[in-house]
Design goal:
Structural class: alpha+beta
Strand content: 25-35%
Largest sheet: 8 strands, antiparallel
Number of helices: 10
Length: 380
């Protein structure tokens, strides 16, 4: 799924557009015991509760694709009888009315979700009547030819509010606040099936994680049956290792600066593209060559790439570099430069030592204080 497709589904979580047919849930304590369950026709709930649920559902479709939102495909074996995809498909097609299937789902979540405190499993079924689109991109609500039926699962921590003093308006006094159990925003969740090319794709799903470095591998493996992708931080480490390994002694300041500039240019050119910007093995190799790498140094690139990240690994540009910041770091100094002016930084050998040289103008601040720069020697 891309940004536009995610946005289209998020827009359904409003009072006017709501296509949710049923809401189910299970409250689990820190000992993995089911405390209570809920099941309601969603639109029969009080309006105040509906809006609170909308906030939770929107959050489970928020973040950066490739970091918080991850597209996952089902291996073929999961689509066979008894597989994870086949189970989710049966659950969707039941429209959450089969209590036995729901209990199986809750049990699978409890067994695979590693969390030592209280949490709420929320599961909705929705049926979105997809409006057609004219050639100019405008929606035609009377030209729908497909209903997108899907499940959205959110797993939300349930925590006690903090202790403190509260004002009692009735008694006109301050007193100890009553602590309540409150449902937080989702920790993880998933949308099944994926909404790809504005249509249901039963061979994939969209996975959400609040913390990109905590993908909850057992949950992904056992409940969803999908292959665990590289985390955002691992993608960055992998890219750095590939560059350092492939370039070897040629991994100098100018080449790496050029790589950053090329990635920034690429991101800028694709900023309006709804698809997340990713690089495959061949594109990473081409990037190194365009940045000044010696072709002979890349003779073993394919092998090095496979060792570092896997032959088919895709690296999201948003994960491997920060195009809004150009940072230079030594053991004792960190310098942050406007990425558009990375050309100001040069390397020179001065007095037998390698130095970073940054020209300055008359305006220099030190800890927020304007300081006078060194006077240039007068020309004779």
């Amino acid at each position: 799924m891309n940004k536009k497709e995610v946005s289209e589904i998020k827009k359904q979580f409003t009072q006017d557009n709501c296509s949710i047919t049923r809401l189910c849930g299970c409250y689990v304590d820190g000992d993995k015991t089911k405390k209570t369950e809920l099941k309601d026709a969603f639109l029969s709930l009080p309006e105040e509760e509906i809006f609170k649920y909308f906030e939770i559902f929107k959050k489970a479709l928020s973040g950066t694709i490739g970091k918080n939102l991850i597209n996952m495909e089902f291996p073929l074996k999961t689509e066979q009888e008894g597989g994870t995809q086949e189970f989710l498909l049966k659950l969707r097609d039941s429209r959450l009315t089969d209590q036995e299937l729901l209990e199986q789902f809750y049990d699978k979540v409890i067994a695979s979700y590693d969390y030592g405190e209280n949490y709420l499993i929320l599961l909705i079924h929705a049926a979105y009547d997809i409006p057609g689109k004219a050639s100019d991109g405008l929606e035609m609500f009377d030209a729908s030819d497909e209903v997108y039926e899907y499940l959205l699962c959110c797993i939300c921590p349930v925590n006690l509010t903090k202790p403190g003093l509260a004002y009692n308006a009735v008694e006109n006094c301050f007193q100890n606040r009553i602590r309540d159990w409150v449902v937080d925003m989702p920790d993880i969740g998933f949308l099944f099936p994926a909404f790809t090319d504005r249509s249901a794709d039963i061979h994939s799903l969209l996975y959400y994680t609040k913390k990109p470095e905590e993908l909850h591998g057992m949950f992904v493996d056992e409940l969803l049956g999908c292959t665990l992708p590289l985390t955002a931080a691992t993608q960055k480490e992998t890219f750095n290792t590939i560059v350092e390994t492939a370039l070897g002694d040629d991994c100098d300041f100018e080449v790496v600066k050029t790589i950053h500039e090329k990635l920034t240019e690429l991101a800028e050119a694709k900023k309006d593209d709804p698809e997340p910007l990713a690089l495959d093995k061949n594109e990473v190799k081409a990037l190194l060559l365009q940045s000044g790498a010696d072709r002979e140094k890349l003779e073993d690139f394919d092998t090095q790439y496979e060792v570092c990240g896997g032959n088919d690994a895709l690296l999201m540009v948003s994960n491997v570099t920060n195009t809004k910041k150009f940072e230079i770091k030594t053991a004792d100094i960190v310098i942050t430069v406007n990425p558009e002016r990375a050309d100001l930084v040069e390397t020179q050998v001065i007095g037998g030592r390698r130095c970073l040289v940054i020209p300055v103008d008359d305006h220099v601040e030190l800890n927020g204080i304007s300081v006078k720069t060194m006077d240039l020697p007068k020309e004779e």
